[in-house]
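User: Design a sequence. Structure:
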């Protein structure tokens, strides 16, 4: 059940540490995507409420009320698009999947790929060509394809819709990813043996829960290295690690370069 329909980009904007929404309610005639880089907000699409934070993608179909409330200053991409060559009944199917399986929000396990897209989009924003460059279209389409991959994954593994406990566990990890948590404690919280929890999580989401947590932390670390001048110790603490030395080892393992080199290669004006 893959979503093979590319999107046609109509508009793309980036907001950094926005303190409040100019419009708290919107009803658009096209699709709206909010890709959250940092911060947290509460939303209601139609009659479905939710809350989104870093690494989450909120998708609002056409002709639905999209209400939102800022909880913390938000850095995000705000994108308008239509589905290309998509029949009306197929678009309705996509909307039903989005509502029933995801509550209009999805969090890809491929956080490294998502934040890599964010970095490229931000590069286009910094030079002022968010609306015209073909690269922008490519990276926005790749974010959409991550949603398609998540749908396909849930279909293949019989769906987290049939395992709401694992969806709840993943949401809990998302909310507490930057605190001192251990997978054995998460398993205990959900009344499961660690081995059982690991196998069940992997069967639904396609990767180990520890790997999922690791990728969330490392992608936040990349953002902090690029967007701030925080020390390694500060970044370590903000990503759930005790000290810069251990964080640096983990980051080098993940990014295949040390934090200082990554910052030098990717840093942009603040």
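Assistant: Done.
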């Amino acid at each position: 059940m893959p979503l093979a329909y590319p999107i046609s980009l109509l508009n793309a904007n980036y907001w950094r540490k926005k303190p409040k929404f100019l419009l708290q309610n919107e009803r658009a005639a096209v699709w709206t995507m909010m890709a959250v880089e940092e911060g947290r907000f509460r939303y209601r699409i139609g009659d479905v409420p939710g809350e989104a934070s870093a690494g989450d993608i909120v998708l609002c179909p056409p002709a639905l009320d999209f209400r939102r409330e800022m909880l913390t200053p938000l850095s995000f991409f705000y994108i308008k698009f239509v589905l290309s060559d998509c029949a009306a009944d197929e678009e309705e199917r996509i909307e039903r999947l989005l509502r029933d399986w995801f509550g209009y929000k999805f969090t890809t396990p491929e956080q490294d790929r998502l934040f890599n897209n964010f970095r490229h989009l931000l590069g286009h924003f910094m030079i002022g060509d968010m609306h015209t460059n073909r690269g922008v279209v490519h990276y926005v389409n790749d974010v959409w394809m991550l949603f398609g991959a998540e749908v396909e994954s849930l279909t293949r593994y019989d769906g987290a819709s049939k395992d709401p406990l694992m969806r709840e566990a993943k949401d809990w990890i998302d909310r507490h990813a930057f605190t001192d948590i251990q997978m054995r404690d998460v398993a205990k919280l959900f009344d499961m043996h660690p081995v059982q929890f690991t196998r069940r999580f992997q069967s639904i989401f396609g990767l180990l829960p520890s790997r999922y947590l690791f990728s969330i932390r490392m992608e936040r670390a990349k953002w902090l290295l690029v967007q701030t001048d925080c020390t390694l110790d500060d970044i370590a603490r903000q990503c759930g690690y005790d000290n810069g030395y251990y964080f640096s080892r983990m980051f080098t393992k993940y990014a295949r370069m040390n934090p200082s080199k990554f910052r030098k290669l990717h840093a942009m004006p603040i």
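The two ends are 42 Å apart (CA to CA). The beta strands are 7-18, 25-27, 31-45, 48-53, 57-60, 65-83, 105-106.
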